[in-house]
Write a structure and sequence with these properties.
- The structure holds 2 protein chains of 2 kinds.
- Chain A is mainly α.
- Chain A has 13 helices and 2 strands.
- Chain A has one domain: Orthogonal Bundle (ABC transporter involved in vitamin B12 uptake, BtuC), CATH 1.10.3470.
- Chain B is mainly α.
- Chain B has 2 domains: 64 residues, no CATH class; 263 residues, ABC transporter involved in vitamin B12 uptake, BtuC, CATH 1.10.3470.
- Chain B contains 14 helices and no strands.
- Chain B is globular, with a radius of gyration of 21 Å.
- Classes of the chains: A mainly alpha, B mainly alpha.
Chain lengths: 314, 343
């Protein structure tokens, strides 16, 4: 009986953890979905998340207020996203290369400012973290209640954001405009859609959601910041976007899959199987590659993805 | 006239980069005078500093050449870091598992093995890209993380030095070490390997049909296909050469610097190599120059950290800024250059 109980406990915590691991990937993935559907490939997503994580931590640490932390997380992501937008829309620079450069920029900036502010201390500076919110009645459902309705506000917001994104992208005219700009910016421009403005707006959405994804790492999962805290989560979010075929719920499910691999990895590490921990740390990346293989031949990229749009060019 | 314009915009980039560095240093309340002094002292102050720049430039040239070959063919290889580690694994296996043999033969086998293993690590994403259109940016980055963890697993299991509790491989035999070029500094034979590779890549890319076909595919896939040049073949080939060169960077780091496999042998050389290739405009000579330049930046930054306590992560910020400025300089500076009456 006790064994069955602990197995059940293991599964419940695993599922609950998978959902938490999926939150930053989903948020960043949703942002990138908007961006990519409008034809802008932003590899700088890693930098966006890192910047969001850093600025949310600093704001929350200094003010001891989580809400201010969240706001600065969005602004931090926005900073990187806006540089990307500015560079690729005003100077027509290769979007991929700007993204790579911004990842460097963000990694350097966050570590530099962090070390400059705190110095090399032995104690890890902590910031306040969000508490789980029990939803009345629903959280009393056995198992499901613990997994789904005893989570923090970010989790509920993520699901909400998926619904809103779905409605915007599939049920509004503006959503269709985004798609047409991603497919054929010239044609969209000809019929009077404002390509640049739309792309700037999707870049804003991308920056805010990506920054929020980064903020989740510091304000909910960890409560502290360290150099390169995202360690590739932004890149994994890019895979999640491809895998979810740029559909909000697709992104959510893909993120849950990768999130489960990550949650499992942490659990396996603590079991003490006598294997080097690297075997498990590697797991989410391996799962990401394998999962990517399953999407072969099924991805319909927006036709103008990653191509700068110059109004005056043919 | 073209050169004046280039020169002026390069100068502007250098000045802006220095200004941004100064702002960061002042905002973080470090001593800017001390920073400047220690930066230049670190670079020009001693023979050791000069040799250190070349030591760090060696893997950057090799991996940078690799990235540049891939970029010229339109294959965005972000995976030089992982390919470098694969090369390091290859030479370590050659050292640990093969019987003793003459140095020339041993090094030659290690170089071939490093090239092949690094190459294989890039060919898998290359194949997936060429055959199925899977984004190489994603796969190569994931392969970086996987390779680094494989190193972590190997130095704790198969390749572990049984006489030590630490996660290291045994020390490589003498026959697998590059000789020092400038005793007592760390400058080693890997630098010659890097220069020779640069010459070879120059010849292959600019003087042979193979290189021509690679560049055609990078320039215009459709035009290439129409004139009978296979996109598939050339992307796979480019990824092999690219990963192989990054693998050589790993071989050179083990044979010249560390002499055994351990975690963290590369402080991001594979990622900096991307910037090396971009700044060097995919030309071997440009790669050498930008590798030495970025390496000097790092050596100077290390000296700033030692003497003024400034975190070395400032180099990442500056590298990002340099790339952004260099990419957008033609449009960004055109107004400025007109005002200065430079055509």
């Amino acid at each position: 009986m006790a064994e069955a109980g602990s197995a059940l406990y293991f599964i419940i915590t695993l599922f609950a953890a998978s959902i938490r691991m999926a939150v930053p990937l989903t948020l960043a993935g949703l942002g990138e979905t908007f961006s990519e559907r409008s034809g802008v490939l932003n590899i700088g997503l890693e930098g966006i998340m890192l910047s969001g994580a850093f600025f949310s931590f600093m704001a929350a640490f200094i003010t001891q207020n989580i809400l201010i932390g969240v706001i600065f997380g969005c602004l931090g992501g926005l900073l990187i996203s806006m540089i990307h937008a500015f560079m690729s829309f005003k100077y027509y620079v290769n979007q991929t290369i700007v993204g790579i450069a911004l990842n460097f920029f963000s990694l350097g900036l966050t570590s530099f400012l962090f070390l400059a502010y705190f110095g090399r201390t032995t104690t890890v500076p902590q910031c306040p973290v969000v508490k789980p919110i029990k939803i009345p009645l629903l959280s009393d459902i056995p198992i499901v209640g613990d997994v789904l309705f005893n989570q923090d506000i970010f989790v509920y917001f993520t699901v909400f954001a998926c619904f809103v994104s779905y409605i915007i992208l599939y049920k509004t005219v503006w959503g269709t405009n985004i798609d047409s700009i991603g497919e054929h910016p010239k044609a969209a421009d000809t019929v009077g859609l404002n390509v640049k403005r739309t792309r700037y707006i999707t870049a804003i959405i991308n920056g805010c959601l990506g920054g929020l994804g980064g903020a989740y790492l510091t304000l909910a999962m960890l409560g502290f910041f360290m150099e390169n805290i995202t360690s590739g989560k932004g890149f994994i979010a890019l895979v999640v976007v491809i895998l979810g075929r740029r559909h909000p719920f697709g992104v959510l499910f893909a993120a849950l899959l990768v999130g489960a691999a990550e949650a499992l990895q942490y659990r396996l590490q603590t079991l003490g199987l006598g294997l080097p921990s690297q075997v498990f740390i590697m797991l989410p990346y391996v799962v990401t590659v394998i999962v990517l293989l399953f999407s072969i031949g099924k991805s319909g990229d927006p036709a103008a993805l990653g191509i700068s749009y110059k109004r005056s060019s043919r | 006239m073209k050169y004046t314009k280039e020169l002026v915009s390069t100068l502007i980039i250098i000045i802006v980069t220095f200004l941004i560095a100064a702002v960061l240093i002042i905002v973080a309340k470090y001593d800017p005078g001390m920073a400047l002094q220690s930066f230049f002292y670190g670079i020009f102050g001693s023979l050791h500093g000069f040799a250190e720049i070349m030591v760090r430039a060696t893997p950057l040239i090799l991996a940078g050449l690799g990235v540049s070959v891939a970029f010229s063919t339109g294959f965005f290889n972000i995976g030089a870091e992982g390919q470098l580690y694969m090369g390091a694994i290859a030479i370590t296996c050659v050292g640990v598992f093969l019987p003793p043999m003459p140095a020339m033969l041993h090094i030659a086998i290690a170089i071939i093995a490093g090239f092949l293993l690094g190459g294989i690590w890039a060919v898998i994403p290359g194949f997936l890209k060429a055959k199925y259109g899977v984004s190489e940016i994603i796969t190569t980055i994931m392969f970086n993380y996987i390779a680094i963890n494989i190193v972590g697993i190997l130095v704790r299991t198969v390749l572990k030095n049984t006489e030590s509790a630490l996660p290291y491989s045994p020390v490589m035999p003498k026959s697998l070490s590059f000789s020092l070029l400038l005793y007592p500094t760390r400058l080693h034979g890997g630098f010659i390997l890097a220069i020779v590779s640069a010459v070879l890549i120059y010849i292959i890319m600019k003087k042979t049909t193979i290189g021509y076909e690679l560049r055609v595919i990078g320039f215009n896939k459709r035009a290439g296909t129409c004139s009978g040049i296979s996109v598939y073949k050339n992307i796979v080939l480019a990824s092999l050469i690219s990963g192989g060169l990054a693998g050589l960077a790993g071989v050179s780091e083990i044979a010249g610097v560390h002499h055994r496999l351990l975690e963290g042998i590369s402080p991001g050389y594979g990622y900096i190599a991307i910037i090396v290739a971009l700044m060097g405009r995919n030309h071997p000579l440009g790669v050498i120059i930008s590798a030495i330049g970025l390496s000097a930046l790092q050596v100077g930054a290390n000296s700033m950290q030692r003497q003024a306590g400034i975190p070395t992560s400032i180099t990442s910020v500056l590298m990002g800024v340099i790339v952004l400025l260099a990419l957008s300089k033609n449009i960004m500076f055109s107004g400025l250059l007109k005002k200065m009456r430079i055509k």
